[in-house]
Design brief:
By secondary structure, the protein is an alpha+beta fold. It is built from three helices and eight strands, in the order H-E-E-E-E-E-E-E-H-H-E. The strands form two sheets. The chain has a five-stranded antiparallel sheet, with helices on both faces. It has a three-stranded antiparallel sheet with strand order 4-5-8. The structure holds nickel (II) ion. Nickel (II) ion binds next to helix 2.
Amino acid sequence: MAIRDIVTVPEKVLREKARKVTSFGAELQTLIDDMVDTMRAAPGVGLAAPQVNVPLRVIVVEFNDSEDEEKPPKLYLVVNPKITRFSSEQEMGTEGCLSIPRILGDVERSESVTVKGLNRHGQPQKIKATGWLARIFQHEVDHLDGVLFVDRAEKVWQIEGETTQIAPAD
Ligand code: NI
């Protein structure tokens, strides 16, 4: 396992449509493990493969979705993710991105989503997410289509320092 470099704008891979994964061999397993290491080291709550310069449809998300702050965050690994349901209720929230340093923005997203995809072995999985977890999934799946949060943001602004991840509401 290894920490990979995170590419930042205007790197071309961030604007391309990523390819579907069709092979679940050692290369994919290493990619997923490296993405988890890279996300944790950043630190961030989500990462899409194009952000480590790999144009494949893979995302990793790690977030504590429960009310209980003592609980460890839950790790999600999703290959070929597709959001199959967006709630009509939307919510505004402040996002950042490891690939767009020192920029935050207010983005309206669906308050809940259903994500379908495959696990690391190619078996189907379905995740229902609400609130911040739903926001993270929408942000990460966007990356696979070359869409960045600034494209959807109503307002973006610059910050000092290194805070570049999606910022859970405080
Ligand atoms: Ni991002």
